């Protein structure tokens, strides 16, 4: 019966986890961005055709919410970071299996592999924690400014003003009566 190697099992488990997490983050990031861009494209259209203000405002709210969710969850950054870690782990696996890189020059290549796996994984965890702390420490005013930078339409929604209502004939006559010549 073949013995299970805990280092190789750990490596395979981490490669699978980072691969799945990277794909999930990529999918969520692209879905949020696609929806946000689509909603943004409809803002000028709905404003230009004179549709109800509620529809234009709702599109703006959707954009702000989607960008806020992306900013809080950092899907883009996670996608890149998880993919990088996954590929680094695969690289270590191939070096180890081929007996290349630093592995042939050490007494116990499995110990070195275990150390390098844990170094990569713990480095990823440290980066993730650091990014979470950064994203949570942004003051509200800075967050709004950053959101406006990322989504120019946020300025329109946050500074939205009601559409002027045209005066009726009776109101125009009242205004004309008060003009002195």
Briefly say what this structure is.
This protein is mainly α. Helices cover 78% and strands 0% of the residues.
Descriptive overview:
The protein is an all-alpha fold and 181 residues long. It is elongated, with a radius of gyration of 28 Å. About 8% of the residues have low confidence.
Rounded mean pLDDT score: 80
Rg to the nearest angstrom?
A: 28 Å
Order of helices and strands: HHHHHHH
Low-confidence stretches: 151-165
Strand coverage percent: under 5%
Give the number of helices: 7
Topology:
Layout: H1 6-48, H2 53-73, H3 75-98, H4 109-136, H5 140-150, H6 153-158, H7 169-177
Helix pairs in contact: 1-2, 1-3, 1-4, 3-4
Short key terms for the protein model shown above:
elongated; 0% strand; 181 residues; single chain; 7 helices; mainly alpha; 78% helix
């Amino acid at each position: 019966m073949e013995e299970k190697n805990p280092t190789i099992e750990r490596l395979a488990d981490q490669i699978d986890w980072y691969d799945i997490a990277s794909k999930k983050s990529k999918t969520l990031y692209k879905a949020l961005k696609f929806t946000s861009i689509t909603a943004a494209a409809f803002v000028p259209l709905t404003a230009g055709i004179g549709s109800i203000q509620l529809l234009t405002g709702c599109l703006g709210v959707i954009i702000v919410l989607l960008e806020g969710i992306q900013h809080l969850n950092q899907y883009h950054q996670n996608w890149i970071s998880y993919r990088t870690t996954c590929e680094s782990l695969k690289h270590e696996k191939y070096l180890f299996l081929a007996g290349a890189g630093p592995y042939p020059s050490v007494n116990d290549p499995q110990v070195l592999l275990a150390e390098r796996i844990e170094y990569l994984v713990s480095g990823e965890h440290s980066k993730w924690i650091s990014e979470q702390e950064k994203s949570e420490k942004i003051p509200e005013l800075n967050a709004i400014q950053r959101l406006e930078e990322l989504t120019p339409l946020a300025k329109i929604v946050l500074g939205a003003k009601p559409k002027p209502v045209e005066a009726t004939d009776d109101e125009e006559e009242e205004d004309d009566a008060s003009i002195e010549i």
